[in-house]
Amino acid sequence: MWSAKEIQSQLAIIDGQKAPDIVIKNATYLHSIFKKWAQGNIWIQGDRIIYVGERMPAMFEGTECVDAYGKKIVPGYIEPHVHPFQLYNPETFADYAARRGTTTFISDNLILFSMLDQQTAFTFIDQLNELPFSFYWWARVDSQTVLQNEKELFNPVDIVKWMERPDVLMTGELTGWPRLLQGDQNIMQSLMESKRLGKKIEGHFPGASERTLARMKLLGADGDHEAMTVDEVGRRLQQGYAATLRYSSIRPDLPDLLKGIVEKEWDVFDHLMMTTDGSTPSFYREGVMDQCIQIALDAGVPPIDAYQMASYNVARYYDITDLHSVIATGRFATLNFLEDEHNPVPTDVLSKGKWVLRDSIPSDTFKAVDWKALPAFELPYELTDEDFTFPSSMGIQMINDVITKVYESDLDLSSPTIASGDECYLMLLDKNGKWRVNTMLKGFGNNLQGFASSYSNTGDVLLIGQDWQEMKRAFNEIKKIGGGMALAENGKIIETLPLQVAGGLSVQAMETIIEEEVAMKKALRERGYAHGDAVYTLLFLQSVHLPYVRITPIGVVQVMKNELLIPHVER
């Protein structure tokens, strides 16, 4: 981590032969091991804490001296379960999060793994490591949908190369666990490699019974973030899981979970973590992990426990306390300065020895990665009338944002328009133009002429609407702008959300992405979308880890029965 030359320079500071870069004096800081507030002085050189204690350095020449009197200092917050590709990209999200004190991500690698060759993906990760921010990663073992080349893409040989990286801390999340129980040898081999390499395995077990949790524990799962009730939290803890409590745009369970735990007087906070679980941009207007800490404080969690749940507990679980979440000698100099422990929004943030927030003023925007170097989004074909052929009256009905069921449509599916009602035509189109899947979608909108999105689980195009011509218009618009979302109506484009990076990510700052997302969601609500988060609906229409019916590259699938209801059609 640090070279011999750097360590010798650090030792010279201790020996009084050299001045540190920064000294924070009169510090009242959270000592994560003692679980107490301590007082002292903090010496920093580069990105490392050199000393914490009562002493002051012998030399001060060129040293930045910071008087922390009246402040409380806590370790930088860690988000342990990040999907950093929800319209934003990892860099823009990290830039935004750091200003609120979240300075470490443990991130999903799905997009990088599935879209890029390994060397290119690793190059992007290495560029991110140049930032004053800490990135760690997962190693996915399944696609979360049904791909035609699933076994070839998610093969143990390529997956283990990710696991062998020191910045990959976790295998999963295991959305494909039913296949594992059915004997999938690829997934089993990957999990065995994960155990050999000492990586944690994260489950994805919504509604799991005690029996299922026990079986998955025997298969290697270490943690799970899907508890939706206090009893489900207790069930996971009882089986020996690490439980991560969720506060996201589609599962804002954290307040009720923590209130329930406090009421039950469970002394388990040392074994809990928190996550926002890859929420969509506008959800983060109130913060990232600072938002979770505030919820914990409001629920009656003792302040030190609340901060540890968003820092030390995560670092201890993933065995990175030698670098993170202990304000002590040898760790990264990553510190949040607070007005008091009851307000987790920092006034100052030091991340790896760099100020990313000083006196509530942010530093320069993060710019280490050229995200436009990802493959451009191009649609090398035109839609024809033949593409608008709907072979089955069977369709997908939305129960909420992400849960669906099968229904039968009574409409004339040869008609190019739907005059009224909450049924829409739904198409999944291969981005390369080789295949399509056509069905119906009930409950997404009731006055929606044409909507297109290249933001989807697989990067293929979703078309939704009640007018074939306007659906074509929306398709042509995302083709024109290089990917994103487009809403067409009465011969015009009403709203767009450009996603210039591979058709799925924006290069804009989070504040801009938030405004664009809010505008698109408002337009969809005005046209009948009545659920919580339309962006998550688009993402999860293809995701087979949720019940009951999904549109995938192989066709419309009945998930629980593993049954193909409507096959894809070659174009």
Automatic annotation (TrEMBL):
Transmembrane segments: none annotated. The keyword Zinc does not apply. Gene3D superfamilies: Metal-dependent hydrolases, Urease, subunit C, domain 1. It comes from the Bacteria. Keywords: Hydrolase. Residues 403-562 form the Adenine deaminase C-terminal domain. This is adenine deaminase. It is an enzyme of class 3 (hydrolase). InterPro entries: Adenine_deam_C, Amidohydro-rel, Metal-dep_hydrolase_composite, Metal_Hydrolase. Its EC number is 3.5.4.2. It holds the Pfam family Amidohydro_1. Belongs to the metallo-dependent hydrolases superfamily. Adenine deaminase family. The keyword Hydrolase applies. It catalyses: adenine + H2O + H(+) = hypoxanthine + NH4(+). Residues 73-356 form the Amidohydrolase-related domain.
